[in-house]
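User: For my dataset I need records formatted as: sequence, then structure tokens, nothing else. Please produce one.
Assistant:
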Amino acid sequence: MGLLSPLATRIAHPRRYDNLRRIRALDPERDADEILGLTARHEFPWDYSQGTGIAFMRDYGVPSISRVLHRTGEFEHHGVKRYDDTILIGQEATIEGIDSERGHAAVRRLNRIHGHYDIPDEEYAYVLATTIVGPVRWISQYGWRPLDPHELIAITRVTTRFGELMGLKDLPTTYDGYLALLVDFERARFAQDPANTALAEASIDIARTVAPPPLRPLVRRVTIALMDEPLRVALGLPAQPARFVRLVRRGLRARARLLRLAPPRTEPLLHRASTYPGGHRLADLGPLSMLDALNARDTTPARSTHA
């Protein structure tokens, strides 16, 4: 990661690497929020979103997690809202910086939602690991350039701080630490379960709903084709023909090469939530069945946080 070939830089828009030069001039510890914003919302907005989507799927490969999620019925009955809310809470937490007032408010909201369920810290730590490993793996495979070491340090710092605000302790402080956490957890806990498959199919339906109409017939097959084999097996989804898998992955790599010819994004790309066409408030986010309790002062359980 972080190395650019001379050929890649020559065959590119003359300003394509402006944001990267800016990132390299920043301090990845002190300026982690700014670097994350440049990476996730300027350099790789679509890729970061796709990697996050695959990260959500990984959670479903663990039966103890998938059964809790499946029992809520949110994915089957309010799937698009659940998808939008998940993305928006993450966006709210980081758009002004993880330690901003807005960032803390978003994580408090998430903690109140989580407070309704009995979830062990090791599962929270695993889910947190998926949110960094998913995008990094995706960008490494399909991004228009490699991630820079400054980006990995910054993304890791924000991820760890997010986890600390959730009340988690002894979290990794490096990307490799999160990768090891994820790999070890999945090796021990990935297993087939009907809840896994039900959630995966419901999430694919969500993706089909929000995809452009011409692409909807292919969403399921493409989604499965982009999964690694342990994840696909744990979710109980059918293998796709090897030729189709190669075609999908080559298509994404061709897209990456074309993106080098585009100018750098100057405005951040934020999530467009179809659930809230007129805009959202933090008070809108969360399961419909919980909204009244979530919005009532001091009446909902919440996980402890480190302010």
